[in-house]
């Protein structure tokens, strides 16, 4: 259905994306063919898909009919609506749904990532993309972790935040760690990543454990002492002389790979 008027209310779900991520309106936004397809395949009910004629045609040819309204707009109209020139030519909006509980998110899981204080949305997106690519079964969020459904996180994750089970622990920076007892009771070996040279080698920390939870913290401060005390072991990634840390998404990716390797 062609829409030529930028003020058409049917486009309100994707309006002013440069000013708001739409989380305050209870929405999830996806951009580009691949991410939109993952939104359509997710548990989030899609309101609409908006895009150029060629982008909509390509989407249907590649992924099939999405089962929601599809609105055609030209490039100038879409730019006026979203607030910037959207080169991908396709954007979709969906309702947020009730979050999973921790118990629901870890059901059947063998490898889990836990994030404390990771507040950068691009790092969150990168972490989810790395986790999905390396067989991590779920991501759990501790205090201070940013919203993974923020538009930038969805985009950077290539839509994997929409596919990977995720749940948030209750509590603040000094209390959320009490919830880790649930993971321990479910048989998870809890590993906290730290650059501390006294920590054990990452490979050694995971060896022989069938269920592992890998915990990373914010860049700079890292994990809180409260969090590390709640784990079974502190592990480090060996670093070259003169260096002391990695980007949190990079460090997590190395840990996820080492976990994969330990299962071979």
Automatic annotation (TrEMBL):
<feature type="domain" description="tRNA/rRNA methyltransferase SpoU type">
    <location>
        <begin position="112"/>
        <end position="257"/>
    </location>
</feature>
<dbReference type="GO" id="GO:0032259">
    <property type="term" value="P:methylation"/>
</dbReference>
<protein>
    <submittedName>
        <fullName>rRNA methyltransferase</fullName>
    </submittedName>
</protein>
<dbReference type="Pfam" id="PF00588">
    <property type="entry name" value="SpoU_methylase"/>
</dbReference>
<dbReference type="InterPro" id="IPR051259">
    <property type="entry name" value="rRNA_Methyltransferase"/>
</dbReference>
<keyword id="KW-0489">Methyltransferase</keyword>
<dbReference type="InterPro" id="IPR029028">
    <property type="entry name" value="Alpha/beta_knot_MTases"/>
</dbReference>
<dbReference type="GO" id="GO:0006396">
    <property type="term" value="P:RNA processing"/>
</dbReference>
<keyword id="KW-0808">Transferase</keyword>
<dbReference type="InterPro" id="IPR029064">
    <property type="entry name" value="Ribosomal_eL30-like_sf"/>
</dbReference>
<dbReference type="InterPro" id="IPR001537">
    <property type="entry name" value="SpoU_MeTrfase"/>
</dbReference>
<dbReference type="GO" id="GO:0003723">
    <property type="term" value="F:RNA binding"/>
</dbReference>
<dbReference type="InterPro" id="IPR029026">
    <property type="entry name" value="tRNA_m1G_MTases_N"/>
</dbReference>
<dbReference type="GO" id="GO:0008173">
    <property type="term" value="F:RNA methyltransferase activity"/>
</dbReference>
